[in-house]
Amino acid sequence: MIKAACHVHSEWSYDGEWTLPQIAAEFQRRAYRVVFMTEHDRGFTEDRRRAHRAACAAASSDSLFVVPGIEYSDADNRVHVLVWGDVPFIGEDRPTIDVLRATRAADGIAVLAHPSRRDMWKCFEPAWMEYLHGIEIWNRKTDGWAPSQPALQLIDGSGVTPFAGIDFHSRKHLFPLAMELPGDFQSNERYLVERLRDPASHATFRNRLLSDSLVGWRHLRLRMAETCRRTAARTYRSIIPRRSASALSRRVQN
Question: Parallel, antiparallel, or unpaired for β 202-205 and 208-209?
Fold first, then answer.
């Protein structure tokens, strides 16, 4: 199997921090063979898409391949779709169904991103399903340390592939999620996109099938860990502003 990181942003995205070579080096160090990029559509054009493809090729090597891709968002910035393949730039703020149809027409792959973000799952349209290859059931940035419950309900019985996405923007998002693709590694974009499309591709967590973490004690442990993480984060955010305000007050008094 080929270990791949999906949903990764570089400095080509308005909110990414790392360069493509930095990303390639870090993920190779973590034993990934493929990185599926998903730069935000904001500010992109067809020329910029082509330039990004060239930059991804330059950052690739015989050991790790960087696959170019774009994350499209609708006008409300609520529904996001990850697109891979040599798909001409579709445009910013396009309706989701237009993105899905354009991706299908260009023989690309479309994956619905982070259904829990802004409760996107509540506005999901069944008509999208026939165009989707997969749905992210665990997005590190949005869902934290446990899979998304709404995403699991959305994908149940759909027949599309459950995806694990890191949604990498900076080092804090590094997390042992991956997609494992069938076949031997080849440093070739089209080949790797087809491996991702293969029904035998699957999501993993800590090199185990992600499905193992969706039931029983493993799932319960993840839910508990995520609850603790969110509680700690809320506490931290509530304390830091007070400390900052107190420090500023002392400086003013002095």
Answer: antiparallel
